[in-house]
Amino acid sequence: MDTIICLIAVIIIPFTLLSGEGLKCLECEYCNRPGGVEPKICDAGEGGFCVSVNVRDKEKDKNGLPISDKKIEVISRRCKKREEGFLAQKPLFCEVGKQVLHEHNVFCCQEDLCNSRDPKLLPIPKAKEDVPKSKSFPTGTVVGIILAVLAIAAMAIVAFFIWSRRRRESLHEPVTDVSVDTNPLMGSQPSSLKELCEWSQSGSGSGLPLLVQRTIARQICLIEVIGKGRYGEVWRGHWRGENVAVKIFHSREERSWFREAEIYQTVMLRHENILGFIAADNKDNGTWTQLWLITDFYEKSSLFDYLNRTTVTVVGMIKLAHSSACGMAHLHIEILGAQGKPAIAHRDLKSKNILVKNDGTCCIADLGLAVRHDSRLDKVDILPTDRVGTKRYMAPELLDETLNMEHFESFKRADVYAFGLVLWEIARRCSIGGIFEEYQLPYHDMVPSDPSLEEMRRVACVEKQRPAIPNRWQNVEALRVIARVMKECWYANAAARLTALRIRKTLASLLEQEEVRRV
Q1: Which of 2, 121, 300, 408 has a Cα-to-Cα distance from 462 of 20 to 30 A?
Q2: Which catalytic reaction applies to this protein (predicted)?
């Protein structure tokens, strides 16, 4: 494969040098797959980067479906334009390349066709072979060795506990040897999270520079654990007297951390109904590497928790639904231009991944499974991973495996289906005249608490069932409209479902009507 790439480089370099002044790079997906597509030339523009990515993943066919449990190295090459980075700093993904990893590595460079190099991965650790038994020793010698080992072990345990206690104390103390105020990149010296976020929207619009992100991360004081999941833990932290949320990933989830940080730093992604990203950093705590993702903090927690503990008014219901729809619509839309934004699909939309803000509106969180659409090449940028969305919220085409993975609209339609189920959860908690339904998850009366794919496939695809609509909703205009919208979101025919933009406009009109009615 390297020989082919070198030959292509020798043939194409003279022509690419004449075609423009921008940086020329090799571009291909699954470059090392036998019989794969030969690399093409892409233009990274002035100040861009050539990127070569090596990911260890399950062997897949041309449709992206696993064909065996065997993991192979998958190499991709692409261009990254300057506006996708951090001003004059290298992009966050280039920092990964400074260390050789087991699962993922990146090589970035700034010379024509320099990304023909394949980043190296560490070999997967193998189980140690059994050590052959040694010859027997006299009983006295054995006892002496055992006592010496026990004494050393006891001393090591005591030392470890002392070290751990001091380490925990230092971890909860803010670092004082670095300061955002003295950072040369922060000319106006912002002193609050609001000012930092406003500052981050200038320039490339893709977030704070990497150096500033690391400075902030090292000034955060962790306070308490507020959530746990398969990826790790979420902490409430303090930065200069303000609360922040710190999502700490397990070290084995480095690809999820990397992907979520990369998606959050997409140019022009920031929106009032998308969880505000502050920083990402990897911190060595002495025993393992902690992967931090720092975002805005909201006391009301997730929509799931909020609906469990309280009911909502008609206006409150519409605000929750409309603001969530605004966030989904912003993800789905593509913004064209030099500072544009690609269309993004969430892929794990549910009430636990939507947060409730202090003003009663919502913002969408957890973009670890999100996919982006490259409209120029008409390609879906999807992370190779075994992790899938929440089965209860999966659209029928995902459950029966008929979704076209190469068609980006398919992912957007699956998001709309899941959003319809979230609308159902919200509407049940709308209290009118003291009458409301208790909180339940969608399909609570049809499948167990942790349903399998087969159980969800039977209910949603074979029996074509959907959550029940209470009769009382037909007597209230707002609930009647919400019910109509949710039904049009969960059609079995994905192409017949509403778009996120249509949902947003319908709910905006409904909110305006209700607010006028109550004046």
Answers
A1: 408
A2: L-threonyl-[receptor-protein] + ATP = O-phospho-L-threonyl-[receptor-protein] + ADP + H(+)
